[in-house]
Specification:
heterodimer, A: about 190 residues, mainly alpha, Recoverin, domain 1, 11 helices, about 5% strand, B: about 600 residues, Potassium Channel Kv1.1, Chain A, Four Helix Bundle (Hemerythrin (Met), subunit A), Helix Hairpins, four-stranded mixed sheet, about 55% helix, elongated, disordered C terminus
Chain lengths: ~190, ~600
């Protein structure tokens, strides 16, 4: 929205002190400085909006359409649902994702998949996420993926995750099934 | 944006966690940064000026000098800094490129110095950002052309024995200073062009009477002599054309060029005349063809560089001229329609149709003011038109030659974009260009003011002539030429006035060419202020108003006998007593009509200028 954008450009947000952020997150001072410099370069006003998110992601994934995934990602970062991500939120999320425990990471991922933030993942939400990821990968994947692959993927996922076969996946089911699947957890360590 | 993206890499890696649970196979581990040093500040000493930046900033572009290990060659162990013995001004731009990802080209910088610096730092000029790319390209092209010209003029002084005969001949044609023969040829052709043009002109002059017949023009009296002269000229031109055709490196391109077309058009009528002399019905067409002989004068453009520049100028602002024509046409149509419908009510109106009122509109808009075709009732309208015409005169005539001529100046401060001075007041970025524009603008205002001033001058002459011999029957009205029994043979007074009229018009038109000539010869323009000119003009207009408040009579005017009958002056109804026959006058100035001094309240808005 234009008004929001104007407001954001006029308001220059400055993050809390370095010591406070260091205490809240798992980053060191130097790391926070590096992160902030990059952040400030891209967003001189001190907040990121969804457009910038999408642009950044589009740079990393030029072959595909990363906009949907960036959209979901943005809403996962934007915990207060204000439409803009301040540096503190950004750094907090990064701290979880890069320096957090496995449990925290899984919880964050569950939050990402739960699009409407109601505490459950249903098949439609999963479908949206998987489709967004496949869009981001683009058409030039190896091996070449067929049209049907996302649906199959979701079916497999749900079979694995949904323990009581009620059509939705709760946080506990998610955590449980992820932790038994040791292959995936390799990455989380 | 590219520079900052690297900083977001941890974010992207973090976000990748999002699809981990969904993925079928595990993602490979993130590459650990080998030799990952702590980010440190580097000091770059460029000719004494110190720049500091992060090492990672420089390493964004590893294929440049600063981004690679090549800079280690410049590392000074004693001061622990990198020393470059180069221009610090340009280095600023280079370093900004690393910081922001965009390379800018500073306008004040010399193009070749900039290129050298870029080459030293290993940066390709193609990555100059869009904001500066056009400027860079233009400057580069200009520089290349200048260097090429210098090279050409150098090469001309060298002797090149390895040219073939054909090539030498072509060079002789194109550049007459290469050899004496070429110079002789150049002058001979020039002479014959002049002879040919003068012949054409003299042919039509009446030459005195042959006893027993009426007065003949010289062409018919000495037809044999003129024919011989014409033949000689055409022979020379044909020979020249054929030689050029033979010598041209690309004959096809030569044939298509403008100069060769002019050559062909100049000599064709003669040959066609030779072929067609015996045919009676096409003799009329043959006579028309002789008109084309006047194109021989364009052959002079090979001899005059100034003429060529004028040609290029017109060509390059063809779009502006076209727009001018289009807007004039629009205005003509609008005003003609308005005049037609405004006068439709009057039964004796001469505006019988919209095309008929075109003539009136055109004449008024170009400030000729024939007034032979005049509206009856809405006499205010033409005067308002004249007011607008004064404004349009200012804008049209003043601004047109200057941007076009300035497009072809080679002043060093000229911005490289050919249409940079489209209208006075265009946006300029460099200070020198601003100065040049303002000078041109001032000059154009000044000369345009002078031009309009001349209009007033002429018109006031018209006023004064009216006052000097008032009509005895109607002392309160201006003198009417139709009231005097001899028509317009009003004595030397009138002729003088007309002469002054035309003279002042000519003088002031020539003013407009002065700036063009100045620009052509690259003289520095005088920076004159337009303000005094404008105030003089305003004062004069005011004087007009005060002097002739009662002048609202539209029927005053003369009639040019050569103008068709439809536009003859109607008998005036307001004053009566004037003869019905339109007055005529002979003389060389019969084509010029006196003007009426504009008066009335509508001059008020004109002061605002």
């Amino acid at each position: 929205k234009i008004e929001d954008e104007l407001e954001m450009t006029m308001v220059c947000h400055r993050p809390e002190g370095l010591e406070q952020l260091e205490a809240q997150t798992n980053f060191t001072k130097r790391e926070l400085q590096v992160l902030y410099r990059g952040f400030k370069n891209e967003c001189p006003s001190g907040v990121v909006n969804e457009e910038t998110f999408k642009q950044i992601y589009a740079q990393f994934f030029p072959h595909g359409d990363a906009s949907m995934y960036a959209h979901y990602l943005f809403h996962a970062f934007d915990t207060t649902q204000t439409g803009s991500v301040k540096f503190e939120d950004f750094v907090t999320a990064l701290s979880i994702l890069l320096r957090g425990t496995v449990h925290e990471k899984l919880r964050w991922t569950f939050n990402l998949y739960d699009i409407n933030k109601d505490g459950y993942i249903n098949k439609e939400e999963m479908m949206d996420i998987v489709k967004a990821i496949y869009d981001m990968m683009g058409k030039y994947t190896y091996p070449v993926l067929k049209e049907d692959t996302p649906r199959q993927h979701v079916d497999i996922f749900f079979q694995k995750m949904d323990k009581n076969k009620d059509g939705i996946v709760t946080l506990d089911e998610f955590l449980e099934s992820c932790q038994e699947d040791t292959r995936n957890l390799q990455f989380f360590y | 944006m590219a520079a900052g993206v690297a900083a977001w890499l941890p974010f992207a890696r973090a976000a990748a966690i999002g699809w981990m649970p969904v993925a079928n196979c595990p993602m490979p581990l993130a590459p650990a940064d080998k030799n990952k040093r702590q980010d440190e500040l580097i000091v770059l000493n460029v000719s004494g000026r110190r720049f500091q930046t992060w090492r990672t900033t420089l390493e964004r572009y590893p294929d440049t000098l600063l981004g690679s290990t090549e800079k280690e060659f410049f590392f000074n162990e004693d001061t622990k800094e990198y020393f470059f013995d180069r221009d610090p001004e340009v280095f600023r731009c280079v370093l900004n490129f690393y910081r922001t990802g965009k390379l800018h080209y500073p306008r004040y910088e010399c193009i070749s110095a900039y290129d050298d610096e870029l080459a030293f730092y290993g940066i390709l000029p193609e990555i100059i950002g869009d904001c500066c790319y056009e400027e860079y390209k233009d400057r580069k092209r200009e520089n290349a052309e200048r260097l090429m010209d210098d090279n050409d003029s150098e090469n001309n002084q060298e002797s090149m024995p390895s040219l073939s005969f054909r090539q030498t001949m072509w060079r002789a044609f194109e550049n007459p200073h290469t050899s004496t023969l070429a110079l002789v040829f150049y002058y001979v052709t020039g002479f014959f062009i002049a002879v040919s043009v003068i012949t054409n002109v003299v042919e039509t002059v009446p030459c005195g009477t042959v006893p027993g017949s009426k007065e003949l023009p010289c062409g018919e009296r000495y037809s044999v002599a003129f024919f011989c002269l014409d033949t000689a000229c055409v022979m020379i031109f044909t020979v020249e054309y054929l030689l050029r055709l033979f010598a041209a490196p690309s004959r096809y391109r030569f044939i298509r060029s403008v100069m060769s077309i002019i050559d062909v058009v100049a000599i064709m009528p003669y040959y066609i005349g030779l072929v067609m002399t015996n045919n009676e019905d096409v003799s009329g067409a043959f006579v028309t063809l002789r008109v084309f002989r006047v194109f021989r004068i364009f052959k002079f453009s090979r001899h005059s560089q100034g003429l060529r520049i004028l040609g290029y100028t017109l060509k390059s602002c063809a779009s502006e001229l076209g727009f001018l024509l289009f807007s004039l046409t629009m205005a003509i149509i609008i005003f003609a329609t308005v005049m037609f419908y405004a006068e439709k009510g009057s039964s004796a109106s001469k505006f019988t149709s919209i095309p008929a009122s075109f003539w009136y509109t055109i004449v008024t808009m170009t400030t000729l003011g024939l007034f032979s075709l005049l509206p009856y009732f809405s006499f205010l309208l033409p005067q308002m038109l004249k007011g607008s015409v004064a404004l349009s005169r200012l804008s049209l005539k003043a601004t047109l030659p200057f941007p076009s001529s300035s497009a072809h100046t080679q002043s060093p401060t000229n911005g490289s974009h050919p249409k940079w001075a489209r209208m006075s007041g265009s946006k300029m970025s460099s200070l020198s260009e601003v100065r040049l524009t303002s000078k041109i603008e001032a000059f154009s205002h000044c000369s345009a003011t002078f031009y309009v001033l001349s209009g007033c001058f002429q018109q006031s002459l018209a006023d004064s002539s009216f006052f000097l011999s008032p009509d005895p029957s109607h002392p309160h009205l201006p003198r009417r030429p139709s009231s005097s029994p001899q028509g317009l043979s009003c004595g030397p007074l009138l002729t003088d006035e007309l002469r002054a009229d035309v003279l002042s018009e000519g003088v002031c038109s020539s003013w407009l060419w002065l700036p063009s000539l100045c620009l052509l010869s690259q003289d520095p323009l005088m920076s004159c202020s337009a303000r005094p000119g404008r105030s003089i003009w305003a004062l004069h207009r005011m004087g007009c108003l005060i002097r002739h408040p009662q002048w609202n009579q539209p029927e005053v005017g003369f009639v040019n006998p050569s103008v068709p009958e439809i536009l003859s002056l109607p008998s005036s109804t307001a004053s009566g007593g004037s003869t019905n026959s339109p007055p005529t006058f002979q003389g060389p100035w019969s084509g010029v009509l006196a003007k009426q001094c504009p008066s009335g309240w509508w001059w008020v808005p004109a002061w605002g200028i």
